[in-house]
Structures are given as C-alpha cells and as structure tokens.
Model the fold of this input.
Amino acid sequence: MLKRTRAEDVENVKIGEMIKIQGWVERIRDFGNVSFGVVRDSSGYVQVTWARNEALLQEKEKNYEEFRGIPMESVVSITGSLQNRPEKEKNPKQKNGEVELVVSNMEILNLCRENLPLSIHSQDIESHEQTRLKYRYLDLRRRKMQKILAFRSSISHCIRSFLISRGFMDVETPTLFKPTPEGAREFIVPTQTPGKYFALPQSPQQCKQLLMAAGVEKYFQFARCYRNEPLRSDRQPEFTQIDLEMAFSDEETVIQVIEDMFLEISDKIQVSLEFPFRRLSYNDAIHRYGTDKPDLRYGMEIADILPYCEEDDIFVHALNLKGLGKALSRKEVEILKKTIVEQFPEAKSAYLIKVKEDGKWKGPQFLSEHRKQELETNIDLKYGDLMVIMSGINKEKVLQILGSFRTHGARKSQEIGILEFKGKFSPAWICNFPLFEFDGDTIQSVHHPFTAPVKAEEQNLRILIENRDKLCTYDSMSSRSYDLVINGYEIGGGSVRIHDASLQEGVLDLLGSDRDEFQHLIDALSLGCPPHAGIALGLDRLISVLCETDSIRDTIAFPKSSQGSDLMTGAPGEIDRKTLLEYNL
Done:
C-alpha cells in the first residue's frame, strides 16, 4: 500500500513514480475529455490531471464523473503517477509548478456540502469577521491563516529552545489560584464549598517569585493568562505570555537575555532588527512622542515651543507632520482641526499651520519672523509640512493629544505614500516608569506592587511608607521597570522585584492592600529569597506585530470576539439551576 506523500515532499519524487496525495479539493476545471484540479494540504498544492480516454476502465468511469463534479473543499485521496507538465503550462515560480499528478484512482474521504458560509480561497482575512469567527475551522484553512499559525509555532519552538539552552527550567504554575487584588479584574471560579472561590490567574507573577524563593534560579513557561477587561484589537480575555524570571539578576541581565533571544529569532525568520535595542526613559518617551509605547519607525518628535511664545502660564508644544500640508486638501485639514476640538476639549488652543511653497505659513500668525525661523529650524519645518500647535494647562494631556496625532499622521502618510514602513521593525526599551500613580490621597502601582524602586529612591520609599502625609513629595519616584515596545505596541513588561519582606509589607500597606492576601509571598521573601528580576512577553501580540496583522485575533487559533464571546460554540452559555445550586450560586 502506498504511503501518503505531502505536497511539500513532491519535489523529492521521481518523474513516473506512483504516489498518493490526500487533502482538500481547491478547484476543478473541466474541459470535457480532460479535467484539471488542485489538491491542497497544509504544506502546499499539487495539480492533478485526469483524462478521459478509451483506456479508462468501466469501473473508473463513475470515479471520473465524481472527480468532475466534486464540491470544492471535499476531502480526497488520489493515486497517480507524477509527470512533467506540458512546457507551456509550467510555472517555475510556483512550488510544484512544473509537475502534475496524472490520476489513476480517487477515493472520496468526505464530501463537502455546497455553498460554504465563507470563501476559503479569498485572502481578504479582514472582512466578515463575525462569519470568520463562527466558522473558524474554515477560516483557518486559508493559506494566510495557515502561514500565521505555522509562523507562531516556529517562533514558539525557537524561543523555547533558546531559553532551555540558556539553562532556564520550564515550570508550570497553577491555573486555579487565589483571587488577589493586584491589577486587572479576574475571572472567578466557584467551588462546591460555600463562599470559596478560585481565580484564573491574570499572570503567574506571584508563583514565579515563589519559584525564586524555591531555588529555581531560571524559570520560564508559556503561560495561559486571563483578564476580565474591556476588549480591543490587541487584547483578549485569555492569552499566552512568555514568562521568565531569574534569581541573582537585575534589569541589565534580563534585557540582555531578551535581546539575545530576539537575535536568535531574527536569524531564524530573517527579520531585520537593530541591536542593541534603543533605550528611552519613561519621561523621555512621553516628552518626545506623547506615549510610553512610541512607534520609532519614523521621526515626528514633539517639540516644546513655549520659549518661542509669550505665554508663561500654560504648556505649548508642536508636532511637525512631514509632507501632510501638501498632501491633505483644505477639507481634510478642516476635518482634522474639527477632530481636535471635538475629541480633545481639554486643549486651551490648537492651531494647524501649512508651510506654503514660498515658505510662508498658512494659518494663525502669532510669532515674529525671527521666532518663526528659529522654530522652523528646531522642528525641521519645510514646504509641504503641516504643523500642529497645541497648548493647555495640563502638560501630560497636551503631550498625549499630540502623541495621538503623531500616530494618526503617520498612518495617513503611509496611506498616501509619504511614509513606507511595511516590513520594518523598530524595538525599544522604555525604562524607569513612575513607581506610583497618585490621585489625591489615593495611590496605586503603575506596574504592580512587587516592583522595586530605583536604588536611589529606596530610602525615600521607606520614608513615604512611614509618613503617608508626604505623598505629594514623592510623586516622581521611579521604578526599576522596563517595557519592550515594537512599532508602537507594548510587547512585554518586566521589573526588578522587591525581595525584602519588610519593604514589600510596607508597599502593600501604602497601597491599602490586605496584607493577609499576600502573606504566602511575604513569608517566602523572609525565608531566604534571593534578589530577582523578570519579564513577561505577550506571544499573541508579538506574532501580530511580526506578521503585521491588524488584530491579535488573527494570531490565535480560536479567539474570542470583540465582545468576549465564542461565536463558534456560543460560549459563554447558561448553566442549569441544578448545577448552580451545586456551586452555591
């Protein structure tokens, strides 16, 4: 009996050899006495040919007619001899494009019903998402989706192999864990014990720190995580993160390991990355790009232009949208200005200024010629550019608004061909985020409550813990944290952890957390826990960025919809009353 030959292995078969291929019928073209078809498996395509002639045996006649009329996407097993295609039909650019399988027998393994709910052969994976998610098993047959899944598998294997080669131990942590108020809202799991619940972990943060106390010096896992939060294109209620932690390490150790890992990935998948990755402080990123996850594939930095203005009680910043002054029509500029007024009422004033061919400004005139020239030099303002000037009493809000317009302007520039960054990847580390966020007397962690302060601030933190009335004094305290950003997306975040039990207790008290909820961790820190640091990288988002998809849903085999539901199975579903009573609900 012939063994199955996959499409990718056909190139190793000799001409004239009998083989058997199995897969899905991609298409059939019938010309009366000869029919051509394409059979697809997960590795590629094979053209099959079946000619009707006198030598066709009677028992094969019915088989031939079935071949001619078989519905697309039916599953077949075809036996035949591999032959060269006629010269005029050869396609050397296509895999298996110079050969065809001359059919001698076909077995129908499963007939597909007519009128598929979606087209398998359309490569437009952005359309009809509701239908795509409902029939996800059909959607995943698309060549583009198959490539994304294969790419994800390859990257995962590469990362796992790299970490194991560096001495990391793959350790699984619980999926059922204790509910803790450390960040995002959790999914709660009821038990049969009245009033007792598990939570699905939003990350293995506490467990991996406990592993450091357990003497597992280098830990990693591909962890399933769950967050009961509002969804968007780059967020799912359940996701996978590449989680790692190292004892006797600091931020430099973690950053070096991750960059070495990306070097390994870039070599395997032939993605061009600049090493070492750029580094920006949190404050620098906010002031230059208006966001803590800047897209560095293009410039367009925000400039502080208050020195050029007569105002002294507000913040004034400018953004040069290169080339958009010439590219955008008057109507488009008006729409942009209207957007600023409607969406950002916090701005005290906003101006859009075009630079005309003679170098003059088209828009509000509020600077002397000398000041104009200085400003033009400072932000590289030239003919065809569009300058956005914004002022307000809240500096962070002004920068945030301009950061949003920087992103919007870059996308518009790409659409009309001014900028081109397809296939470009610009990673950067954003370091030393604020340790806390303050809102009046309320204080919360920016990363999480286990993040260590920078060494120079540790004593100040201890003073803050002892004197809560000095909250406003230390609102600029920095942490030993670091986020990895690629093309404007946060790929991962990490920090050096607090390993001193008394300091950790103090931070939890400062945040108003119930210390008893974390007593297991505090005990571990007090029983000989080494200094440690780690990071978690979002695998789904990493694959989405590298594959340049618009949504991480395209990188997950069975994702949830934007409303958090599974359209394929109808989950979440209702539970009968008997089951509810068993769980005391």
User: Anything to note?
Assistant: The chain is about 30% helix and 25% strand.
